[in-house]
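Sequence in, structure out.
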Amino acid sequence: MRMALGKNSKPPLRAPNWTDKPMENITIRMVEPDDLTACHTIEARSFPPLEAAWTSALRTRIETYPEGYLVAELENRVVGQINSGSTSKDDISDAEFKQLVGHDPDGENIVIFSLSVLPEYRNRGIATRLLDGFVNHARDMGKHKVLLLCKEDLVPYYQRRGFAHGGLSASTHGGAVWHSMSLAL
């Protein structure tokens, strides 16, 4: 039986929503070597096997370019990551670049390889906090552009964050179709 709300009735309580909870306890920081296992777990739980970076690739990124690798930590647990390489090239479809082949720490562009959050921590604003922190950090490093490849369903997310859609990429990483995105700093 449905009941109408009267003048003094209160609306029904709604179920808690993680997006209602502030993220003041989240820390965005540079990766540390001890974060490797947590970062690999996030990667493996966020991407299909053919797309996820191997532990060796993540180790290389951590050791070679830690300043381009940030993590989100909540209650002493790494729950998200964003990692990258740097280049002066605008074409980032070369699969070897994800292994940092051709990486130039002084390059004018910074290229995001992965922005990922553990599934149970998604929809809480963590990815956006990571991305915003990363963009600010790239700006502080004197980079000119942030580049990335994403799947079609994520194009609107990045556009809301100020990225321009550059169309389809030549990349065939993991057998998927990728879209080029760029943000001028």
